Amino acid sequence: MASTEDAVIYQDVFEASPDPIMIHDADTGTVVRANQAAGALLGCTPDDIVGMHVGEFSPPGFSTADANDLIAEAATSGSAQVEWATEGPDSTDQLVEVTLKRAALGDETRVVAFIHDVTSIRERERKHAEQSEQLHTLMGNLPVVVFTLDPDGVFTYSAGKGLEGLGMEPGDLEGTSVFETYSEYPDIITAVEKALDGEEVRVTQEVDNLVFETWYRPVFDDSGQLKQVVSVARDITALKRREERVEALSDATNELLYSRTETAAADTVTQIAQRIVDQPLAAIWSHDSGDDTLYPIGATAKATDFAGVETAADLPPMGPDSHENRIFHTSEPTVIEDYQELSNPSAPAMPMRTLLCLPLDDQGMLCIGSETVTSFDGDERFLLEILASTAAAALERIERETRLKSKQAELERSNEALQQFAYIASHDLQEPLRMVSSYVDLLDSEYGDDLDEEAAEYMAFAVDGAHRMQEMVDALLRYSRVETKAGDFEETDPEAVLDRTLDALQMRIEEVDATITAESLPRVDADSNQVGQVFQNLLENAIEYATEAGIEPRIEVSAEEDDGMVTFTVSDNGPGIPAADREEVFDIFHRAGAHDTEGTGIGLAVCQRIVLRHDGRIWVEPSDDGAIFKFTLPAVTEVNGDD
After folding, report:
1. Where is the PAC domain (predicted)?
2. Would the pTM count as exceeding 0.70?
3. Nearest to residue 292, comparing CAs of 313, 320, 332, 316?
4. Which residue ranges does the chain devote to CATH 3.30.565.10?
5. For domain 243-398, is the CATH number 3.90.550.10?
6. Strands 79-87 and 93-105
């Protein structure tokens, strides 16, 4: 028996408890005692509760019989528990947990009901459950694999949609050793060993046909010991495939830059197209505007095998009335969903299904086919359209270069024929001219005394004509030898070349009291003998024309280097060149203005031919005082100097 003092203490505890407490008669289930908190729960006084049966204040659906059964269970077994949804005094819903405990109070058996408000607890539990479900749903749908390893490398957790690609379900890995499961993947084993040693690891790994970007992070306990390794593996197979496609397109661009034939470009385009879409049936046709037909110029080996032909050229052409030809003229990329349903295909016997047609501007068309009805995703279409644009530009460039080479070859043949003609004509004219000159001299020496004044004049005209013809033939020979007798290009000092030229002209310079000055002249990459010819022709012209005009010749030579070329300037104080003659002055046998000086009019033509051989140009600058000639030659670069 408890003492009176203990009874008082229990009474105080009973009344002061913040949780409602009721004491029930074990036989009848009625309340025999209730504390203040119980009264507050039911919205009445504790005395009002006494004598009530549980069924009177229990929630709907919980009868008096149910309450008696629960109380009887507690009285028999010692305890029982139930959770109720009730309405509080302020009419708010709340959840209470009722715990029934058997108690001996004096000689009587009683059942004490401890009532605890669990509304907030259950709300927290509900939210936690929702969050857990959300996390589970998230983990189940993310394209990743999430797993944990214990310190021995055993999987303790595995989840994530990425497991589907590996043919697994969440949890399949749990309990297995990573060292056994992935023993054939040394890169995975190496990464795990580093992580188990405490190192955070990020690595790209291949598993079967998939590529994963995996992050391993060690987790330590408070004592610094490894607790587990948490890892996330992201499937980047599609990303790597896109990277490979872009790389393939970049390769195509680079290769097409160096393709010199239509066939080579077509082979490159079809191979790259196959890599971009993993479709082996790729072929390319070139458009002939003459008969408005597309002719095959390239195809993958799979495409020719599929068509049952030996080479790409054996594929069927796409005539003017074919469906494919009409697509070409629309200039729009088009997908033929099912080739077998076309009314007028170019190859009706071909068992093709889906066909993607990509017109290449005016050049032709690229076609990617499939043996089954399929589709091309957005990335594939985008990359293929870029490839088609690149291919069109390459084919246009090749066509342009082919025409240019053909024209260049034609010009070279024509130029060679002209040079040969000039050389042969001038060489073959030498002998008859010498014969004419010799016999005229014989006539003059033997019969000159017998000729009258008029006959002697005729004889002089004949001699002069023969001499002039000889000079023109010699000039024509010099002109033709600019190419045929040319020397190699080498580092040349124009100052030294000019000095040698002045030495050759020294007598004439002194004779007319000419003054020639020169500034510093940069070195050039040229044929030094031909550079000397240019200087000599320009200086001789300047001296002769100034002397003819009664002017004491004053000539200046200068040069400046810019952008890999040296521009030379030869200016004089002579009569100059009329504006109307500045364009034609370089024509062969052309002489500007009216002059009494002797000459063939071929010197400037030779200068132009020499300068053009050096990829330079020569021209006359407008001037009101004398003549100004400018010409360019390639400067000596560091590479040229080293060579």
Report:
1. 197-248
2. no
3. 320
4. 487-634
5. no
6. antiparallel
